[in-house]
TrEMBL record:
Record has Ion transport as a keyword: no
SUPFAM superfamilies: Cadherin-like
A GO biological-process term: homophilic cell adhesion via plasma membrane adhesion molecules
Name listed for the protein in its UniProt record: Protocadherin beta-18
Compartment(s) of residence: Cell membrane
One GO molecular-function entry: calcium ion binding
Positions in coiled-coil regions: none
Record keyword DNA-binding present: no
Natural source organism: Octopus vulgaris
InterPro entries from the UniProt entry: Cadherin-like_dom, Cadherin-like_sf, Cadherin_CS, Protocadherin/Cadherin-CA
Keyword terms of this UniProt record: Calcium, Cell adhesion, Cell membrane, Glycoprotein, Membrane, Repeat, Signal, Transmembrane, Transmembrane helix
Span of domain Cadherin: 27-118, 119-230, 231-338, 345-448, 449-553, 557-667
Amino acid sequence: MEKIFTNITWFKHKEAQILGTYVGDIALDINSRGIFVSRDLSLISFSRLQKSKGSRLFNVTKTGKLYTNQILDAESLCKYNSECFRMVDVAIQKEESFVKIIEVKVIIKDINDNRPEFQENQINIKFSEDYSKGVTRTIPNAIDKDMGSENSEITYKLKKNRDEPFSLSYSRKEDGTTQLGIVLEKKLDREVKDTYNVQVIARDEGYPPKEGVLNVEISVTDENDNSPIFTQSVYNVSISENHQKSQAVIIASAKDLDSGKNGKVVYRFHSKTAKLAMDYFELNKETGEIFLNRQFPFDKQQTYKLFITASDNGNPPLSSTAVVLVNKIGHQNTAPAIEVNFVSESMKNTATISEGVKVGSFIAYVKVTDNDVGQNGEVTCDLRHNKLLLKSLGRMKYKVVVKKSVDREKESFIDFTISCQDKGVPPQKTERKFSIEVMDVNDVQPKFTKSQFKFLTYENEEPNFPVGFINVTDPDMGLGGQLTYILLSDNENILPFVISNFGFISTTQSLDREEKETYKFKVFVKDNGKPSLNNTENVIVEVMDENDNAPYFTFPSVNPFNLDVHYHPQSKSEITVLKASDRDRHVNAFLSYEIIGGNEKQLFSVKPYTGVLSYSRPVYQNDAGLYSLTFIVKDSGSPMRSATTTLSLMLTVSNQTSKMLATAPKHSDDTIHINLMIVIIVAAIILSVAIVISLAICIIQKYTQRNILYSDVVGNTNCPGERKQSEYTCEPNHPQYDVPASMVLDPGLNKESKTTLLKRDSQYGCKTDWKGSTSRMPLSVTQGLTQQGSLQGVIEISKEEQHMLRPMDHFNEMSTMSSLSDSGQGWSEASTTHYEILPGTKSCQTELVPKTIKKSTPLTLNRPKNLSSTTSGNLQKTANVNQNTTCNDVIDLKSTRVTSASPSLLPQPWNLPMRNSFTSYAKPLPAVPKVPYQ
């Protein structure tokens, strides 16, 4: 039991209780509340009055206890979604007289005793396989007969397999029910699957919740896919007191786009329609016309709400619902009147507000009047604008407030319309248009159009030369949109720029890129509003280069510059490197070098872009001397600028072979690093020691066999190649020295002075010719030759046999060299000398050389015709290794390696190991030992 009002006794009672259920104690309640106080309750009796509407539902005992007289059902006693109660009039009697009548209000509480129910347990809907995603099929909704809002509130969900392409859609109708539909999520394929089974589960919000299930069979085909649609969702009609029954009150018409039975519409009252309303009105099921069934009392103003459902004859049937409001009126309906008063000053329908107005601020008062009665006098108003909101202050009174922040820069005027409409049939509507001007406030900070400004300008321009434009926007009006610019330097240096009030940057002086290439600073901008707003941004100005600087030499550092160059055969072609610089940049600093004087012999050349000075041809001994070379360096700018310098180069030419691994002198500004010198010296010492030890071992071993060797030479008339090989070992030569050399004997010389040309055979299989002076290497034969006439032939000397040749002259380190001198691939003309041919060889026969010891095919070098010595011919005969020859023929000295492990090789006096390389790193050739005769 719970009390609500002070003047009415009331009780709450749940429906569906058994007959005779206790409801409450009236005597106790009125005594506790002071409604009726009696000291002796035994003298008081209670009884219910028979004429009360709720009398038959309840029973009151004499002691004042209230019981149910029957089982209560809220759904049959009361309307949907309204408070369900019954009034019981109870008389209080003291002894024989009535004292007072008490009104007892019994509120019947709805319980969740009804589950949501569908009209059918199973329906069939169809989808065409041609339908695309989004097609919806309407299905009937569930109905819960409970009266309570929670117990009758229904939620829906679709139960299906995960791979089934359907979903459930629902929307709220005017009558509070839900419009349900099955939505196709993707296109169907009838050939894959033609039937789907899903369940729609309806669940109320009661406690405990109850559920209803609708089984939906989905067929993939073309079927009824349109539900009837009313022309209006809500019909509002008013009827007068003298309305004729034969005259239709209104026609609730619905259309169905389907054809045949699927498009035929049938009308009926929805279950939500109250029974009393259906008693007064009649619905034509075929046309949707609503007639007055009988005259209803007009003593009070009343409105009847009818729910009309239009269904087609499809399978399953599709339906829709509309609401019809029938009002009884006594006079003609008039339109409502709107009156608006703005807080600010206004002229006609225009007012002003500041853009700084806060959200929720009150800006106008709206008053609406409509003198009609009933539904014709019930007015609703609306204001549609994203910045403003119309709030109700009570019946027919409203206020206009700011809903969102106002920004004048985006919207300077706010135009809106207030519309008011009554609920008559037809409804009367009034609209009034208003405009609000938004006054500016300095609320926008100046904004740069770029996050960083970068400009390019030229050097050497006059002051006031334009640099660039700083673009700043400020949409504020008046002083708030007027801007002032200031340049800010990051350091104390004064910037050579100035900025105008329009944002143009210009120079205050001529710029020099070589002095400063880039300027970085900030630009400060502020508006003149109150309060003032400002902003800063970074500015970079790059000064573009002009060709205003001539290049200059950094080497040679002085003009003229003296340079001594000592040339020898192993010298590299590079002499030195010219270096120059230019303060300009890019193409203006792209330099090229050139010799413009002092190179009459065309001996020197310079690489145009690297500045490397080198020999342009082989250097001869007569090229030695002083050269005054004039160089020019030019940039690539426009106009082109240049610089010149003079290099006094003293060239000294040497034709003497230097010692092995001796470094060639080189003149440059930079000295050789001491660590490099140490490495070269240590390597040279180690190699020299190894060579000396090897030679010593070989000489000692040869001396032990000398007597046997020389006796074999004298006692044998065959060529030396027929002697037995001595049993001694020698250091094997490196393959790079295993190249035979050929000697060409000039037949024009006498027996004591035969000139032999040595010619180097390249191990790479190519002949090499040398150019130089006419001097050649003469080979003096110390022993007379027995042949008559001119002896001509080719003598091939291997690296072992060269030890048998004794030099008669010295080598000059100042030698002209060929392009192959440094690589050890050839001889130069300064590498020639005199040699002695061993005695005892003049009458020997040339021995056939086995093919097994042949290392490489000898390459013969012919003696040129312009030798200083007289010659009668230049015929040569090359020894054939496959036939026996005499000493008159070519002496074939084959290159071989002598080891004790090669018994097939006979000991030869000329096969001592030697270096077959006439480079600056080779030692002078040793003298050939004399072979004693026996």
